UniProtKB/TrEMBL annotation:
UniProt source species: Parasulfuritortus cantonensis
Annotated localization: Cytoplasm
Protein name: Bifunctional chorismate mutase/prephenate dehydratase
Predominant localisation class: cytoplasm
Domain ACT: start-end pairs: 279-356
Annotated Gene Ontology cellular component terms: cytoplasm
Pathway assigned to this chain's UniProt record: Metabolic intermediate biosynthesis; prephenate biosynthesis; prephenate from chorismate: step 1/1; Amino-acid biosynthesis; L-phenylalanine biosynthesis; phenylpyruvate from prephenate: step 1/1
Annotated site residues (Essential for prephenate dehydratase activity) in this chain: 260
Domain Prephenate dehydratase: 92-267
GO biological process: chorismate metabolic process; L-phenylalanine biosynthetic process
Record-listed E.C. numbers: 4.2.1.51, 5.4.99.5
This protein's UniProt keywords: Amino-acid biosynthesis, Aromatic amino acid biosynthesis, Cytoplasm, Isomerase, Lyase, Multifunctional enzyme, Phenylalanine biosynthesis
Amino acid sequence: MNEELAKLREQIDALDERVLVLLNERARLAQAVGHLKLSNGEEGGPIYRPEREAQVVRRLQAANAGPLPGEAIERLFKEVMSACRALEQPLTVAYLGPAGTFSEEAAVKQFGQSTHGLPVASFDEVFKTVEADLAEFGVVPVENTTEGAIGRTLDLLLATPLTVCGEVAVRVRQNLLRKVGGLAGIRVVYSHAQSLGQCAGWLNAYLPQAERVAVASNAEAARLAAESEDAAAIAGERAAEVYGLAIAAPGIEDVAGNTTRFLVLGKDAAPPSGKDKTSLAVYVRNKPGALLELIEPFARLGVGLCKLESRPAKSGNWEYVFFIDLEGHREEPLVAEAIQEAARHALSVKVLGSYPTAL
Ligand SMILES: O=C(O)C(=O)C[C@]1(C(=O)O)C=C[C@@H](O)C=C1
């Protein structure tokens, strides 16, 4: 057995050396791409190319014969591209901090570890930080499969000059964290309002007496729970590690498969990747049939809608802005035509961005 093990490891060592050589060959090519981009100034375009990264991963997933699952191919090659990209130019990405939030997880999932993360105090700060050029990109949650839309993000999208250049989905496993194990003696549960909502059923069943206190982030909740014996936090596993807490109850979200979708904000529009989405914000007149007129061109031209969400327009009571996600890139002729026609029935249309559909 020992001999067999040694032989297998020898083969792994030999392969690792080949992988190492290939990785560095790839890195040198990426460096050359980086020089080309930077030496061409404006024309060279941005360093980060979300459409190209999506194409690289999709192509390799399609070619993948296993046994590695497609999800591992995505993770590994995103890290490879992250390291290559950092050689071209280091990027800063802002997200809701502190360390240990699901926003941080989303930022790492999209940009990899070789990126400078900039945790900030609120969703508003994420927008402001990118707008002020203190970070090249920002990552904000936009909807959750249990709790629906993140209203604050939608409101901020209406006002920002930034563009949406990516989306990333993160499976959100919520845990009850505290200094010690068990549920006895918990008087207060801290979490972000979204997470309290995602676990409302569980809290009603197991901790009906505990006070629920909404705080700025799940990681902040974990920090508070680490300070007191009778407090607990709802947060992800990462926060337990960061703040040295025990997982008193794992997987307490009410809906299985609880997932949050995040948007990537930047300054450059992403060109088509072959499988894209476009997000719009549309103001319509408050009159009968307005919504029907608005979405009719999409149906007629065969452009699929994946999301329709209304939100108070704040221009007057009972007036609404519709957030529409559709399949396709704004540069595709049918998509462009459908948007143009819809705009004729709208007071205004803001294209928030076109971006590669999450892998
Ligand atoms: O193809 C490019 O434009 C590159 O810069 C190379 C590369 C890569 O490592 O494959 C790195 C960064 C970009 O976001 C996309 C791809």
